[in-house]
Design brief:
Strand order of the largest sheet: 1-2
Shape: flat
Structural class: alpha+beta
Number of helices: 4
Helix content: 55-70%
Oligomer: single chain
Order of helices and strands: HHHEHE
Distance between the termini: 23 Å
Radius of gyration: 15 Å
Length: about 90
């Protein structure tokens, strides 16, 4: 919700905050069980080849803490995960 509303409406703006609330409200009314299961499966799935993630801490779409948590899990399993953080 935050990523989509920030990218479309400008992060921190009043329309963005309203958009984020609308998206969260909508998601609270629909069944997200399949999406959550799919996301959990992706986080648990080891990458076959080495993995390279190039991203910025200012990314408006990506949920940085979630992605970094996933990469930490992959590294803890011994997977080859490389990162390049851009300013």
């Amino acid at each position: 919700p935050k990523g989509v509303s920030s990218a479309v409406l400008g992060e921190g703006s009043l329309p963005q905050r309203l958009g984020e609330r609308l998206i969260r409200g909508y998601l609270s009314m629909v069944d997200t069980e399949a999406w959550e299961a799919s996301s959990a499966m992706f986080h648990a799935m080891p990458p076959a080849p080495p993995s390279l993630w190039i991203y910025s801490m200012d990314d408006e779409i990506l949920d940085i803490p979630s992605i970094e948590s996933m990469m930490d899990k992959w590294r803890a399993r011994g997977d080859d995960v490389e990162t390049l953080k851009l300013p």
